[in-house]
Fold:
Amino acid sequence: MEEKRTIGRKRNTQLLVEMLGSQILCQLLLHLVCLCHNPRPVFAQRQRWEWVTNEAMYNYSPLLPDGTEITIFLFRDMPQRHYFQVKDKSPFSIRVNPCDAALEWRVSVQEWPTHSTYRSEKLGTLEWEQVTTRDLFSYKGNTAQTFVRASSHSALHNLELLSTERDTQMRVYLTTKPENEPPNPELPFDSRVNVASVGQRTVTLAWKPSPSVLHDEQNIQYCLLVNQKHNYQSLCAAQNQVGLEDGLWPDLPVVAIYSGGQEIHLTRTEDIQLSTSLLSHPVSREAKRDVTQLCVGNRNIYSVLDLQPSSLYYFDVFAVNVLTNTSSAYIGTFAKTLQWPDPYTLDLKEGIMAQVYIQKDRQKFYSFRPKSWHRRVQFTFHSCGKLYVTIERNGKLIVSESTNNLKHFKLKGKANAKYIIGIKSMEASEVLVKILVSTRPNKPLFPRLPDSLKVKSFNRLRTCNSVTLAWLGTSEQNRYCLYKREMEEQTLEIERKQQIGCLGPETRSISENVGCKYFHHLHAQRAVAVQKVTGLKARTTYLFDIYVIGHKGHSVKYQSKVVKTRKAC
Structure:
């Protein structure tokens, strides 16, 4: 283990020296070409770069690369300085993205003395006291900020960073071509992450593709984060919470460069002199959290597997440019996986109505396996309250939604299919549910319903002994039965709550029956049934119920209507 750490430190030392050497060499060649006719300024410029690189090595602050995002580790209350060179009249853009703590950062430019300023005739002796620093931009906060500027002349710029809260890290992206290299992948207009389906151990997510994929498909990919704590606003903050093993942290984490999809940690070397305060400063390590990162390429639909049943998970999606290692965050989402079904699951038989009672916050499961190949299958739920229904086919969730009253789910058939139906009550009391399954949905067992099940009474036609009611029908010929019940105003509300709406007319007393009739209209918009009820008592409250009965005898009740007759005729 000690040999591996020694080899790793030597490699990092070599990488740091090569990086600094190459950037210094490029700058020297640049100025040699521009100033080749004057040896005195060339020598002076070399002295300046030697002074800069010596200070950079001493402060452990390498030059910022152009066009590549880097991650910088920062100790609390210990400022860091980084450098970058901008050519004459060249624009540049620098973006600083704090990960998990507020930062103070500023951009400044070095104002150098003129080449003719020398303290003596001795070659290369500059008046360093005349070097000044001018601030260009400063910011304090925990949000990502970008500074864009066009340099009027070739100059050396400084980036100073300070964290006053705790040891932290941030990401810095510098480019001298801001018009050609956007720092972050573009997001679609609707950048939400949608939950397509939920199972016991799987959650399927879908999101709209990034516009950057259209013109840079090879370098744009999506990374998905899964955790049980909360959503993250940036990939930087999330990766800081993933948790690092002991061997992954450098001895002194200062900078990590991402290039070509690989991460290079620059650690302390034998050639770098560090102050005793820096050496004695401990590296704070937060406890490792359960955050999973999955990079899925260009796919914008993905199923997360191996989750725990009945558990809440948070999902975040980031569009990542692997060339520059920049990222943009979609709007995250969350979902709770379903619980395992009870060991005892009841079987449903085709065409036979199953009537069950479901208690508050309880869930029941049923199974259905067609005896032969089927083109379609229809599940019908007729409930007296609000339900949450899930339907799985061969372990894959295909229906997950709430329903009330009568609801049909028509699904495409599949050979050797097995359906698992889960029903959960969302009411404060026990709910009665009727379940019917059929592989021949073209022969409906329940009557067709209109858009509204409300019953209307005409106030102008209301008398002391009669009322007139109206309700919507359909273009299908069905039988409608009207029932009335005399009510006391004191017990009216209690009677309405105790009434079970999904029970049929067979549960009503014969004395409450007003009459039945068949009704339909070729034009559904004109299908309005009107019924006058006579023989009522004056100044009496009545509860009216209408049942529509289909060809197979299954019925659905309209909403109850309460009407009070007038005092006198």
Notes: Helices lie at 2-34, 39-58, 212-215, 235-239, 276-280, 492-498.
